[in-house]
User: Fold these one by one.
Assistant:
Number 1:
Amino acid sequence: MFKVLVIAYYFPPMGLSGVQRTLKFAKYMSEFNWEPTVITAGDTAYFAHDMSLLKEAEDAKINIVRTEGFDPNSILASKGTVKIPREFIRRNLSRASKTIFIPDNKISWSQKAAKKAMELLKSEAFDLIYVTIPPYSAFSEIAKIKKIYDIPLIVDYRDPWYGNHFAFYPSPFHKVKHKKMEDTALRAADKVIVINRRIKEHLLTTYKFLTFDDIVIIPQGYDSHDFENGLIEKRPDSKMRITYSGIFYEDITPKYFLKAFKKISLERPDIAQNIELHFAGLFRKENEKLVRKLNLQDFVVNHGYLDHVQTIKIIKNSDILWMMLPDIKSYDVVSTGKLFEYFGARKPVLACVGEGASKSASLEYGASYIVSPNDIDGIKNIIYKIHSQFKNNELPQPNEDFVLRHDRKYLTELLTKQFQFYLRSE
């Protein structure tokens, strides 16, 4: 077995989609002759914790090393699972943090993780370091280790760094500093992994020293094992169930979708009565208030945050899976994890998206209905179409070859082949 040191702040028992890519890679690495040791956060306060994902990591016998820093999540660890604040509060707190900390408020943890990594490198023979970002400070700190130990370093971009869709630069200094830090870290990396072509193009355009072959695309995916259990329930009625899985934040909002459905309830109450809107995740108080304002309580089922096993059950027992991304240029690089889990369910997808990576993936998937995210009438009309096809048993079928190419085990094989290249080249 070869040994890889994995640096990942976001890892179970933290929940939400940001932990799953790294967990699933670590879970399947041993099947391709790589033994991972994951350096991650210790106890943290966080918006969601998922013990089912932690059990998955433990069942896979992943070696997990935990360390705390002085980041806000670690400082508030005694609070456990905390409620996500109202969006305007969360956004302002985020901007304050980005004003104070460069590149992010996980600097303290990243420094502790780098120190722990050096301790492990002194006592064990690792063949490679793999760091997943965000947080971007982890890449910056681990890049310094690569220079000291001359060990291959691979970085995995789940989101872009400089100029990403959540970026906030209160001054020209902040903007220049971020770009300089990313430039320095990238020069230390042996290989860059990204989740889609848009991020690859962004990096090649921004950092001219990178070549096409320096960056490899390994997309988001789904774990076929999650869908193998007998989770299909007997439905008490024949209503069409539309489900959203995940969180709403920043400009990701259900308001246009709900307003479109409100129009349906007024124009065609007979159709509205045959549809259920399910939400599995952090729905937030402001969205609950919107549901009441639109008088849609009878149509909406809010499951709240569920662990991953229960979320998959909700997805499997849905007829249509809905997602949205704002039609904002900076979001064109986003390949949201939930979308690829939808693909794994092989259900029709209602994708309210603008141009970008998620639209391209939805088109390739085949069983997708695509409409602009803030086009209320467009969303309304596409729901009418979907309902008609649902009643007539004419819902589209996905491109099976595309689905299979996004299985987590297959993607892990692609990743470990990149690892293997650096062993052969030494």
Number 2:
Amino acid sequence: MKMNPVPTRRFDMGLLSAIEDAGLNASAAPQQRWVDGWLLRFSPGKAKRARCINALAAGRRPVIDKLAACEAVYRGAGLPTIVRITPFSQPSGLDALLESIGMRRFDDTRVMVLEDLTAIGAPPLPEGTTLQPIGLDAFAQRVGALRGSPLSQRQAHAERLAQSPVPFNACELRVDGEVLACGQFALEGDLVGLYDIFTEPAARGRGLASLLCAGLLQQGRQLGARQAYLQVDGDNHPARAVYHRLGFADGYSYHYRTADPDAI
């Protein structure tokens, strides 16, 4: 399956590499190990970033042998083997090799970048609307409930946030006392990353996601961030339109491969 064309802006590759590192740090899972230059994460949560192979270095072993060793790890964890493919994946040609052995491509994801946070202002909230901080454990339960995630995935999310090597801050947007949207950001140096932006389906189309994201970005800026990033499904056009209006542009894309049809 081919990805949609990626309308990218020419960002500095050093910035994109730093964003890739920040994204890996923000999605760090307690359950992980290294296999010959590949970082294996096998958290039982919903996020594929926390339960996939990140091929960060070429290593010394033949790819097929290394992949077999990785499959044994995921089999032991009761999870499918999924490989995340980015512009930084190693060794060169890995994507084509995985395709040649029947691993299917899925979930085109865009990494969007905002180079200048000073362009973002926090618009005034309408009457009856509040943006309130929320603890990370409570946030994992909140966003999980909004998504309809099972308890096991909510608990895995909470565990990952509690043990994250970078700080997260979470907020919920209330309208007349009812929680209609929530989200969080991870802060690392000059970078702020938006994560888990979610709006109650019945409340979409009212500009709540824009208010939420602008508020989170403003908080990140106040804490020292100068640039922002986020990750979004390539076919999530409503969300991408919100982010484009905020000033984000596509930096690069990634996708996943697996031989397990149930994992797609």
Number 3:
Amino acid sequence: MATTESNPNPRFFALVPCAGTGTRAGKSGPKQYERIAGHPMVWHTLAAFAAVRRIARVLVVVAPGDGFFERNRTSALVVPCGGATRAASVRNGLYELGRVGAAAHDWVLVHDAARCLVTPELIDKLIDACAGDEVGGLLAHKLADTLKREEGGRVAATLARDDKWLAQTPQMFRIGMLMEALERAGGQVTDESCAIEGLGHRPLLVPDGAQNLKVTYPEDFELAEAMLKGRVR
């Protein structure tokens, strides 16, 4: 990975893990390639990052043998280095960013391919909030619903919600710090913030809104389609 001396001014990179199978979505293939509002889901995601001028480069991590981007060209750098877990895919992607000149002190914004409702404005909001922070942070939505803990299909307890947030993406951290965090955490962490927390840091929570949802279940596709179509009216 490039050294700090070779690039004194930190840049902003985006890394989009796109190697998942999307088993909960109920589709025959990877959900990120399902069409929503006339385009593959991941197309909406990449379009949002392409519209942010401060992003130096977007890297997409796909599974080995994935031929989608061979048939569908993109300006993003596509690398078939997907791992067995999300954490492994992100770690491999960070290594590839280093191979193309990213430095350890540069920032990376890691974003779910299936969060196709992200906007350039939200990405810029995260960069503005975190660029001067010593740790970095993530987009998140303050929990509005009453939160229950379950045992055997029944309510076991009601949990206080005042300090609860839903973690979203992008999540923005220094490349070197995130690489160290993921190497220490192994493959069990479900987001980058969790790995950073494992180093003893406290990432910044940057409020966004409920619309930056992750398309996960079959009913989410219709909701995302309606929201995307509503934006172009």
Number 4:
Amino acid sequence: MKVKTILVSQPAPKTENSPYLELMEKQKVKIDFRPFIHVEGVPAKEVRAQKIDLKNYTAIILTSRNAVDNFFRIAEEMRFNVPDDMKYFCESEAVAYYLQKYVVYRKRKIYVGERTFMDLAKIIKKYKDEKFLLPSSDKLKDIVPETLNEIGVNWTRGIFYRTVVSDLSDLENVFYDILVFFSPSGIDSLFKNFPDFKQNNTRIAVFGNSTVKAATEAGLKCNIEAPTPETPSMTMALEKYISEVNKK
């Protein structure tokens, strides 16, 4: 069956040169964006209940923009002035760049991983004397605590925000040829919103092994998977699939 409509379970891209916009123009398909999950901040009272006192830490591990936003939100709610000599360990350049929203970049001690948490862990390992705080969601990939424990640093996890299922009830009678997912939470949201969801002719696109696993365990057939050596991005995987089925 040909592909005419796609729903991406993420917010719409803010840049004009998004590969999704290129895909729409090139393949003549309609792409809608809708976050299946969203983030809600945990109040400072709940963070205190986790026995977290920000003044006890000398370094912050930041794995996402949400972690950045919620660390500084909690600092403000706790009336904690983040010291200038605080060290920041960012999982990627994108996270480090986003940090500039809150600190003067060139005047801070900022350490950046290449792309994955394993890359960042190699840098963290060199700073065994620091007391690390990891502001995180209530959902955390196992590799993060496992790696930090393995390298033997002094670290504490703080749940600063939660991943919450979005209300998608207005989509109940709307059908798309492809649904695109990037996390197990997105799959979870689909079935919490639509417990009786049947895949039928809907194609499912998934990014990452954990998302593939969640989709398969939920009884879905994964028609499009990324990243692969041939299609390292979701848009490349979508284009390859659409090119093949739409030319028939």
